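Field reference: sequence -> structure
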Amino acid sequence: MNRGGKRAGAGRKPAPDGMAKVPMTIKVEPELREYLRSCENATEAIETALKRSKAFRDWKRESSG
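Structure field:
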C-alpha cells in the first residue's frame, strides 16, 4: 500500500514536477541563526528573501531566456 491511507485518493498529493522541496544544509552567522529561530517558518523567510533579491531575479531571467 502506498502512503496516505486506505481509501482511494486519500492522503497528500505529490508535488508537481520540479516543485518538491530539496533538503539542504547551509552555514550562517550566529546573528542570522537567531533571526531564523525567531521566525515562525525559517524556510519561508529564506525563500522569500532570496526570491526578492536582484541577483535571483537576474539569474532567473537569464536561465529562462
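Note: Residues 30-64 form one domain.
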